[in-house]
Amino acid sequence: SDVGSQKERVVTEEEWLEKWEMGNIGFHKEQEHPLLQKYLDVLLNGGSGLRIFFPLCGKAVEMKWLADMGHSVVGVEISEQAVKDFFSEHSLPYCEEPVPEISGAKMFQSTSGNISLYCCSIYDLSSSIVGKFDGVWDRGALVAVNPCDRQRYASLMINLVEKNSSYLLVTVSYDPNKHKGPPFYVPEPEIKSLFG
């Protein structure tokens, strides 16, 4: 199908921040995602105490769910409001500190230490800052990234994962001529070319 109408679309960081400010967050779900529940064993691959990355995490409830199972969760989100909402909605005490390597960035960490959320652009992250991950739960990140940034996004994600990691990716299928996105339509052949 033709994705021409979406190819040029760009959603700015300001637009994402405005969505959070206005409460226009229909993409946020109050329950653990059924596909994560169904494929949890694939993500965890028999491991315990894994490091799991949530790109463009928002205030995803699955972060606490996985942390409660004993995993270490790291997320990145442009909206400080989303990050603070996550901690307050789960009544989790946290501390906030600057990220020296990234100008203006902050890291919010649960006092238990097993949830660390970076408030910055995902493209400012690198494995030297956040380390590498055993698993990735990409529920709405690839489909939210501007089409022109997909290659950059995929390269970063590949750089952030360990060799034997699991990457769970949720996409949406629809006629891209009828919806401008986000979420954007990412055809399967493109996913294969991005991630191999």
Intertermini distance? 21 Å
Instruction: Report Rg.
Output: 16 Å
Major β-sheet profile: 7 strands, mixed
Series of H and E elements:
HHHHEHEHEEEHEHEH
Q: Do you know the CATH architecture? A: 3-Layer(aba) Sandwich
Determine the number of helices (DSSP H or I, runs of at least 4 residues).
9
C-alpha geometry: globular
Oligomeric assembly: single chain
Assigned CATH class: Alpha Beta
How would you name the CATH homologous superfamily? Vaccinia Virus protein VP39
Mean pLDDT: 94
Helix content: 25-40%
Strands, total number = 7
Q: Supply the helix-strand structural class.
A: alpha/beta
Taken as a percent bin, the fraction of beta residues is 15-25%
Q: Per CATH, what is the topology?
A: Rossmann fold
What is the number of domains? 1
Residue runs with pLDDT of under 50 for 5 or more positions: none
Instruction: Tell me the strand order in the biggest sheet.
Output: 3-4-5-2-1-6-7
Notes on the structure:
The protein is an alpha/beta fold and 196 residues long. It has one domain (13-41, 49-195): Vaccinia Virus protein VP39 (Rossmann fold). It is 33% helix and 20% strand. It contains 9 helices and 7 strands, in the order H-H-H-H-E-H-E-H-E-E-E-H-E-H-E-H. The chain has helices at 4-7, 13-22, 34-38, 40-44, 62-68, 80-89, 127-130, 150-160, 188-195; strands at residues 51-54, 72-77, 94-98, 106-110, 115-119, 133-138, 161-169. It has a 7-stranded mixed β-sheet. Strand 6 (133-138), helix 8 (150-160) and strand 7 form a beta-alpha-beta unit. It starts with a helix and ends with a helix. The relative contact order is 0.18. The mean pLDDT is 94. It is an enzyme of class 2 (transferase). One of its GO terms (cellular component) is cytoplasm. This is thiopurine S-methyltransferase. One of its GO terms (biological process) is methylation. It is found in: Cytoplasm.
